[in-house]
């Protein structure tokens, strides 16, 4: 029997044994024993954030840009409740995360003790799984299980709540290899009959489209490689969700751009008119489908997803395949090749011709302005001046997020970090912190809105402290632009509380934090200012003053179908949205 | 989707009997807006720390499929079986039914309880507590008959169910 160690040491040993090098956290009374152990070692670097929400988003950015598990350490009560937003965000976007929370000592649980919160109760609905560890001898097993559950199957956040007395108690450590889960055994290989049926459909398609999502990214770089190979082999068009950007190179001709509420005309019409839809790692989210009863009415649908509960949840499919994207694609490619399939060239030619005619609408075109900076132009210039394999983009939530998705282009996976499912303003700055920790040499840019940036601005202090040279590129339209846009289109232009009143001077704010502030107000000064930002060693706030009332197009209004899009030319038109549509978000 | 008819299903779930597992299942149902008509839970294998949760729910086939998939996704869940469609099953519920009354009503209540094979587990000069087991419809019928005869209150366990035949699920 090995010699016993205390609970806090068990936590540290378990982190080490699970390959953890960085954790994002904030101390407090109920985690002091763990912080004490952190102090006495050098294997694991702790990044001190300024708010626990920041720790969770930083862990998300870290995970999504590196493929590793993000790790968070916070105290009981307010520490844990502050982490709830990021846990929910990670659950919605399937991000692997282990969040360790301190808890009041076991004998005080239920006594409304100081800084007590029912953390497992509160986080039950926003984690993949959670644990309250009451016995130090369960701690090692639970820690390993937490990493296993967080990173396998459909990834997600796992909370381990550890009462302070358990952190002090002496117990046995158990190595991770000795852990096997009784009931949780996710399936990674797809059913071969279903894969064969899918290949039949794919081989005989006349108007096919690949619809790919975040599952491709989560499955790892291998999945993106296999996807590229398959798409090239078939010659079929491909689109992707917001979460899937980068899994297929945007420079390729078969790429139709992003689909969905603010997706391209060609991607959405291809989805609507296709005869075979190949959904790989996407979940028929409502931002994608629009009106369900009008969603791609004439297609046979194949759906590859690692989560059985995603199948037939929103859209009933013809060929469901439960499994990991990379595993399924590997089998699918093998079957496809072994059959020596020849796609119907004539049908495909006319399908592509149709697609090209939609492409010719140039749905992302916008009117340039030589006096004021258009937000679209700002992102286009940012892309031109910063693109490269070592550039990582995070975003906040709003119009700027959609413009970033539309005008910044990605060639590789793990370069694009955004809050898709939950739509969390305040995600981008802390996420950028996490991305920069995982990629110290990378150029990490948060494409932000001025309102969102204010939500977690304090994490700039984290960046300064840890010498993380993140760039916060604010598309400053002085509005909660996306809210304003909906108010313009759906609420008679009554801009209720959507003006960003009393904004700080972002240049001075940056300086107050010990960072660099840069402002651009005219198109003529934009390029030089961006170049200056890239050259600056430390963190930067870039205050990019853009036109205030620009709308984000194309747009499928709530409750409308894919073939019912608003394009930029429609600007100024009275938009008709059904009452049913208005009730949607 | 919406044109599909809703039907009642009995779902049997084997889970690790760990803290919070029932809250997970109930939270799933309330969080996703599924119905719970009844729910029973108790440890059924002490050495393996396993409990069986029996849930009677209703929904369209698509919703029932979702319920099964969502239950299957919970980490401590071992198995989920829809006893209504996947196999033949037997289902029983137990109820205690308190009836108070005098004279003819009291005699009639006792007579009916015999017809339903209910047992008297408590009696006073003006009341009975009956114990009755059967499927839920039988218990519904018994309670309805007792209502005009002085029904005071009832306590029901909810359905317990197992697949027919020699095999465990
Ligand atoms: C935490 C949070 N609160 C509220 C919202 C609702 N919301 C969505 S977009 C938006 C406005 C964002 O404004 P800004 O960051 O300036 O971005 P813009 O749309 O102007 O580019 C709001 C309030 C949200 N998504 N997240
Ligand atoms: Mg704004």
Q: Which helices and strands occur, and which strands form pairs?
A:
The complex is a heterodimer of chains A (585) and B (169).
Chain A: E1 5-6, H1 7-17, E2 22-25, H2 32-39, E3 45-48, H3 52-66, E4 70-74, H4 78-82, H5 84-92, E5 97-103, H6 119-123, E6 129-132, H7 136-151, E7 157-163, H8 164-168, E8 170-171, H9 192-203, E9 208-212, H10 214-218, H11 221-234, E10 238-240, E11 255-258, H12 265-273, E12 276-280, H13 286-289, E13 300-305, E14 319-322, H14 325-338, H15 345-359, H16 375-386, E15 391-395, H17 399-407, E16 416-417, H18 428-438, E17 443-449, H19 450-455, H20 459-465, E18 471-476, H21 481-490, H22 506-512, E19 516-520, H23 523-535, E20 540-545, H24 579-583
Parallel strand pairs in A: 2-3, 2-4, 4-5, 5-7, 6-7, 9-10, 9-12, 10-11, 12-13, 13-14, 15-16, 15-17, 17-18, 18-20, 19-20
Antiparallel strand pairs in A: 1-8
Helix pairs in contact in A: 1-2, 1-7, 3-5, 3-18, 9-14, 11-14, 12-15, 16-17, 16-23
Chain B: E1 7-16, H1 21-31, E2 38-45, E3 50-59, H2 61-73, E4 77-82, E5 89-100, H3 104-115, E6 119-124, E7 127-134, H4 136-146, E8 151-156, E9 160-163
Antiparallel strand pairs in B: 1-3, 1-4, 2-3, 5-7, 5-8, 5-9, 6-7
The structure holds thiamine diphosphate (TPP) and magnesium ion.
Give a brief rundown of this model:
With 585 residues, chain A is α/β, with parallel strands linked by helices. Chain A contains 24 helices and 20 strands. Chain B is of the alpha+beta class and 169 residues long.
Description of the molecule:
The complex is a heterodimer of chains A (585) and B (169). Chain A is an alpha/beta fold and 585 residues long. In chain A, 39% of the residues lie in helices and 16% in strands. Chain A is built from 24 helices and 20 strands. In chain A, the strands form 4 sheets. Chain A has a 6-stranded parallel sheet, sandwiched between helices. A 6-stranded parallel sheet of chain A has the order 11-10-9-12-13-14, sandwiched between helices. In chain A, α7 links the parallel β6 and β7. In chain A, α1 packs across α2, α1 (7-17) runs parallel beside α7 and α16 runs parallel beside α23 (523-535). Chain A starts with a strand and ends with a helix. The mean pLDDT of chain A is 96. Chain B has 169 residues and is of the alpha+beta class. Chain B is built from 4 helices and 9 strands, in the order βαββαββαββαββ. Chain B has helices at 21-31, 61-73, 104-115, 136-146; strands at residues 7-16, 38-45, 50-59, 77-82, 89-100, 119-124, 127-134, 151-156, 160-163. In chain B, strands 5, 6, 7, 8 and 9 form a 5-stranded antiparallel sheet that branches. A 4-stranded antiparallel sheet of chain B has the order 2-3-1-4, covered by helices on one side. In chain B, β6 (119-124) and β7 form a beta hairpin. The mean pLDDT of chain B is 96. Bound molecules: thiamine diphosphate and magnesium ion. Thiamine diphosphate is lined by residues 396-400, 423-426, 449-452, 475, 477, 479-483 of chain A.
